[in-house]
Queue: 4 jobs
Job 1
Amino acid sequence: MYKGFLAALTAALLVSQPSFAKDDSRPDLYRKLMDCRAMSNPDERLACYDEQTAALDEATQKREIVISDKKAIDTARRGLFGFAAPIGKLMGFGGNDDEDDSDEIKEIETSVSSVRRSGSGWLLKLEDGSTWEQNDTRDFVLSPKVGNTVRIKRGVLGTYLVSVQGQRSIKMRRIN
């Protein structure tokens, strides 16, 4: 899990922001490649494409530019779900005030991989590798067990509501 989290975090830091059309903050190499389309002479256009794709390929091999798809970004967002700070917005996964929040993850569903009681209440380790700790005084009606389905919803003011096997939710925070 730790290596997966670091990989997602690294990808998040290197991924370009989606607001290119507004401020043209696209990487210079990408912009040069797209500029090749405007050339009317086919030989010049092909030479431009060859030169720019070679430069872009070299930059990706050196990890100066990272190319990612929506699925990889969604996976990284899911891996960051539940952290108190808006890490995803800080790392280019959105956060423009004029963007809609349709891509924002509002809830996840997974299952319990281990469970125990701690001084503050329940401590749940989930199949996705995250660990959640209870931070309120309510309790589940039935004790959580390994394999139980867990639904975590984003609450208000940075809280997260965790329901196990469809029981009423309790407040928990992600600690790992």
Note: The mean pLDDT is 78.
Job 2
Amino acid sequence: MYRFLLSRQWVILTLVAFLLIPTMIRLGIWQMHRYDERTARNQLVSTALSAEPVPVERLTSPGHTVTRNERYRSVTAKGHFDTDEEVVVRRRVNADETVGFHVLTPFVLDDGKVLLVNRGWIPADGPSQTAFPKIPAPAAGETTVTGRLMPDETTAASGIKNLKGLPDRQVMLINSEQEARRLGVPVLGGYIAQTAPEPKGDTPELVGRPGDEDAALNYAYAFQWWLFAAGVPVGWVILVRRELRDRREKEDEQASEETEPAPV
């Protein structure tokens, strides 16, 4: 009765079914790795955001690469904004997914070094985004700024192409090395997303806090894949039993037809 399992159809079905089991198990393991990564990132971000602000030069210096543990750390800097060298970062969106610019203003520290400050998002003046927008002025004179320390943006990390031939005072990426060459002065590695002082008007809109990644979703997906893996052999057995039942019913029908008396 089980000879049908050797047919081409059932051999293929069996091979596919039992190849799916390790595949689904591996997908579940991968989802658990993603859960661990996201949980660790959430903890890292939470720790960084809750830490007390420290002077920016404790964590970065010219040429420094901001590390994973330094990212989002709250830092302070004392100096003044240099709006003459201000640039805007193209194709950035706000919380409403509206495309505009980020305002990148050099902040000159008391010792002459420069810290790049992302002052927030402003809308574009028109759909072309080629004209330099009107930007509200920052605090004048000597001031203290606070912000979240961020690593330099790169094409590899962000996927944003660093286009050439852009309109004057417009850039695609926030990169301290690139700005150091443009300004001709030492620039601290990375940049800060300003959190204080808050703008007097509605713009620039300060860049929002990083949110938690949904690690629980990966946890659920992992068990979902493992349940699928467990369900494959169960489903295979059900199909075999159904096929066996159908074959027996067909044989019983044939036997019944053969034993019926011939009409007179």
Note: The first helix runs from residue 8 to 50.
Job 3
Amino acid sequence: MVIAALRKLLPSYFPAEWTELFAIEQGLLLAQEMDLPQIMLESDALSAILAINSSNFEGEAGHLVEGILQSKALFSCCSFSYLKRDYNMVAHKLVQFAKSNLCSHVWKGVTPPFVSHLIVSDLELCAGGSLL
């Protein structure tokens, strides 16, 4: 079941790690807005997930990591995990759609129609035990 999905066009170009951290931050903000007490965020950006999980505030993106960790404290349970891109095609498709449409959009309680088939594929992968 999809609870919410978000695609957001950024106002400029940023390094890949920053973009991933912005996406995680926006996911947290959406979850807060929806009053979700427990969330699990997945990303195919290993460096971003490692920075968050190790509370690494060093470097140019340290302020983004710090903000994410402050937002994390508002949830009763909040985890961040790395997921290979092959198993995160829904997020990839949302990014591609945002790039081609030059707009932001939020879906609450409904599945974006252009990713429905990918969600079914992801569920089949999980049920088959192929997801590690």
Note: The mean pLDDT is 82.
Job 4
Amino acid sequence: MATQLWESYEQQYSSLTAEIVNKTGRIPNLSGTEKQSLITNVEKLFEETKELLEQMELEVRELPTASRNKHQTRLKSFQAELTKLEKALRKSRIAFCDEVHVRDELLGSEETNRSQDQRQRLLENTERLERTSKNLDAGYKTCIETEEIGSAILEDLHDQRQTLQRSRDRLRDTNEALGKSSRVLSGMMKRVIQNRILLVALSVTMVVVIGIAIYFATKRHS
């Protein structure tokens, strides 16, 4: 069943390509709207033939393995033949008997080439702009990340500065407290020394008084 369908496709292909060859050969002898109408008709035949080849390509995949390679080879030859017919159509389009039409066709071809060149440059510029935009986005992202890191560092430095300031304040308070303690101790030492001096003086006085008392008591008894 698949083989019969394939044979039907080949018959359709042969019929379409025969019609393409016939009409392509008539194009150089025509001009104006008649020529353009025939070219349009041939282009439609090409589209129909390409769709047929696509259907044949799908059908090859369903064929038994034994005959698949043979039909694939046939399909490739059909595709190559269609490519040659397309080249023949392009040559026929500029093969005018009228030199004016030849000039118009060539000018149109040049315009088409310029248009294609402009389109290519536009595509290249668009791609370049896209790459530039991506680079800018990446640079902006890097700047944002750098700014965030810088903000974090500044915040950390600010916290460290406050910590140092509090340490300085505590050190100053400690120094003041030590100064007060030193003055208190100095006062206490002075009072201790004074008390010792006073105690020594009292002791000496008591010794003198006792000595005098003993002297007078001894003298009285004698």
Note: Residues 99-174 form one domain.
